[in-house]
Amino acid sequence: MIRLPAPKPEVMARRPQILAGLAALVPADALITEELRLRPYETDGLAAYRQMPLAVVLPRTTEEVAAVLRFCHQQGVRVIPRGAGTSLSGGALPLADAVVVGLMRMNHILDINFEDRYAVVEAGVTNIGITQAVAGDGFFYAPDPSSQLACMIGGNVMMNSGGAHCLKYGVTANNLLGVKFVTIEGEIFEVGGTHLDGAGYDWLGLITGSEGQLGMVTEVTVRILRGPEGARAMLAAFSSIPIAGQAVDAIIGSGIIPVALEFMDRPCIHACEAFAHAGYPLDAEAMLIIEVEGSVAEQDALLARIRDICAQFSPISMKVAESAEQSLAIWKGRKGAFGAVGRISPDYLCMDGTIPTGELPFVLGRITQMSEQYGLGVANVFHAGDGNLHPLIMFDANDPASFAKAEAFGADILKLCVEVGGCLTGEHGVGVEKRDLMTVQFTADELDLQRAIKSAFDPAWLLNPAKVFPLEGNKVLDAA
Amino acid sequence: MQTNFTPEQLQDPELKVANGILRTCVHCGFCTATCPTFVELGDELDSPRGRIYLIKDMLESGRPASELEARHIDRCLSCLSCMTTCPSGVNYMHLVDHARRHVEETYTRPLPERALRSVLAMLLPHPGRFRWAMRLAKLGKPLRGLIPGQGTTAKRLRAMLELAPEHIPAPQPVTGTHPAEGARRGRVAMLAGCAQQVLDPEINAATIRLLTRMGYEVVVPPAAGCCGALTHHMGRHDPAMATARANILAWDAEIAAGGLDGIIVNASGCGTTVKDYGFMFRNEPEAEAAARVSALAMDITEALARFDYTPSRTAPPFTVAYHSACSLQHGQKITALPKQLLAKAGFVVKEPAEGHLCCGSAGTYNMMQPEISAKLKARKLANIRRTGAAVVAAGNIGCLTQIGAGGPPTVHTVQLLDWMAGGPKPKAIEGL
Ligand code: SF4
Ligand code: SF4
């Protein structure tokens, strides 16, 4: 189990007064204090880690958020921001002395401007909710994390989320124009605007991916794009994982940038097919989903070139989606992949590292070896095009030894990513999950420098404090 | 997801099933997004994942349910949208059924609520009593504004009176055997249902007309009655099992007597339950018969597709909004079929946006949770109006009543299909 900082005794002792103070700030139905009702808030998408919070607040306005943060700041109470609670790195894991501030009720679309191509939405609008709001007019919001159905844009900003289509369109940071931001002192700032690149320092760049440690985002302005003329997905099935890895390498090496290039191995193909009935090749050891877009002629030309490249790796089969429904089913399977693995294993740890695409065959080979060493199954599904791996380590949470092995296996995979020149986190954030591995990627000085930025915004480390950085060497938290 | 049941607890076959379901949930949270109550209330506790967590905690501890658990479980519509969304295949239906039973058996509700629930459980499954109650309610309807107070009970009573129809049709008994017209192609049983018979007997009449015209003999054994869903969803295990058992025995006797090509259900809420009899009776002496019955159960649209429905007239040029009842789309995974049949019959079919969200009817939900139900109804009606359709077709009486009060005229899908195959024009759209 992960180590969390000790609860502050003075906060725990004053719980009744703190709850009364919160009750004065928000309507009765926006404050949760009973143990029984706090229970479902003890964890997020990383259910292996759990901690009951002091209370949960569900504000409806930026002003309520500001009032709650101001109060917590005055009282020295820690705050855990929460969106949809889909984080796979434990980004919303509470602390025993912390108030969880959930943004699920701030789910309104505030403004849509097609002429200048932006949308202003509250932080609790789901990622897909933005696209749904503009799709009727032929627009979309590009970053598409697999959890896009449920995850909220505020969380996307905090984790700088990616997604399958980021290969072409970039991640959240590349599609973000502005945010409304509340500091722990309860001050409300507007950062950025409705156009790219404001004056002065790139505050927006700093806030994006700050994992709820610098402040809370309550409103988000995003770039919306006109949808492509059309898009088509194809499936290519291969007889081994390394061969599929080589095919990925060859496609990227040829200079083609498909909109998406996704990889799945055998266990994953089977689990996803059981959910989505998309016609995945059940006889393959590995499969690529490759999507291209543009006019029909462009799609045809690109697909023909990709077919030729794949053909050099003796594919078992290649299949182009024949209808929009087929494409949808193909993506439904891919986007539901993590959950679908729940069909074949009671629990999984979803890793998230990046590597240079040239290293794919090597790294995948090593993961297979490690899987044998640890005696734990692994299902591989990931954004192959940009080298963002998501090995899903299958374990049994009812068996503590199995969980310990899974954690060690996961750490080994991430270390391997760093070794071959990649990074600990692609798009899920560091959260609590990869916190202690930060020393593998950064020197002590580099970590201190980053901590200094956090301290500048939040000197007392009240906002989501136990995440991102190892607890060891943290002067503020250690002193507490 | 990790669970903490003791080995002794897991000896209990019911808890063992619950444990299996809980272990399938990986806590990914996808299901929250498509849950009507989460979308409206924005609280994890009113989401499927939150409810699963609450239920897990309650069952693991073995403690009696409290007001808090009852509150959040009662707010669940049992619409099963979460099951359509869940990539992991979590059987939320069986889990929440189990939880409802646990609540019913271990928690004592406040008296007015207990009384209301008892009255509903006593009335709804019995067409005779229900018709009588509807007559009374109709008389009481103009007085609903006089019920004082903003308390839950007052709101529930007003909601009940609100739902009473202006016109209560004369009963049209359907028990017995309806011979096939022309050469007999097969033989089916039909569930006559309970509340539907009273609210709109034309639905059964259209079903029988259409099937017999297509060459199928339709039997409605007198011993079969309510499917048990209403009491089952209230957590009232014994009465639900008793009515279900009567149906199983009656239909199984028909299977033995003359063979059946299907057991036709034209209220999809009931269909979901009849298809689940096999599971409900898995540990009962009637297990085999229940499995036979469940295997033969089909929605009327499934039967029509299988029996090759063919229209015989040209459809009038109006647009039909197809409302996908939750029990049909999420409970029975029937989504395209009804639209295909309506299109085959010649109608222009439109689908309202947010079709996956419940209309708020959900059995007795619109009476027990009037506020959430009203919000969902308003949302549904707005989406339906945006289609510009003149008529709404759906496959479940609950939805037809809920949407019909305040929206465009509603008809059961089978009524439109019967009309296009030689039956009468449905009364609800006489003016169109
Ligand atoms: S979608 Fe399924 S697996 Fe995911 S939280 Fe919901 S019930 Fe659990
Ligand atoms: S059955 Fe419907 S209301 Fe109940 S949890 Fe599932 S989606 Fe929500």
Task: Furnish the topology, listing elements before pairings.
The complex is a heterodimer of chains A (480) and B (432).
Chain A: H1 9-13, H2 15-23, E1 31-32, H3 35-38, E2 55-57, H4 62-75, E3 78-82, E4 98-102, E5 109-113, E6 118-122, H5 127-135, E7 139-140, H6 153-159, H7 166-169, E8 176-182, E9 188-192, H8 203-207, E10 216-223, E11 225-226, E12 231-238, H9 241-253, E13 260-265, H10 266-276, E14 286-293, H11 296-311, E15 317-320, H12 324-335, H13 337-341, E16 347-350, E17 353-354, H14 360-374, E18 378-383, E19 388-389, E20 391-395, H15 400-419, H16 438-441, H17 444-457, H18 475-479
Parallel strand pairs in A: 2-4, 3-4
Antiparallel strand pairs in A: 1-2, 5-6, 6-10, 7-11, 8-9, 8-10, 12-14, 12-15, 13-14, 13-18, 16-20, 17-19, 18-20
Helix pairs in contact in A: 9-14, 10-12, 14-15
Chain B: H1 13-24, H2 36-41, H3 48-61, H4 67-74, H5 81-85, H6 92-106, H7 111-123, H8 127-140, H9 152-163, E1 176-178, E2 186-190, H10 195-199, H11 202-213, E3 216-220, H12 229-233, H13 237-258, E4 263-265, H14 268-275, H15 277-280, H16 287-296, E5 297-299, H17 300-306, E6 319-322, H18 326-331, H19 337-344, E7 348-350, H20 365-368, H21 370-387, E8 391-394, H22 397-404, E9 410-412, H23 413-420
Parallel strand pairs in B: 2-3, 2-4, 4-5, 6-7, 6-8, 8-9
Antiparallel strand pairs in B: 1-3
Helix pairs in contact in B: 1-6, 3-6, 4-6, 11-23, 13-16
The complex binds iron/sulfur cluster (2 copies).
The site of one iron/sulfur cluster has 13 residues of chain B, from helix 2, helix 3 and helix 5.
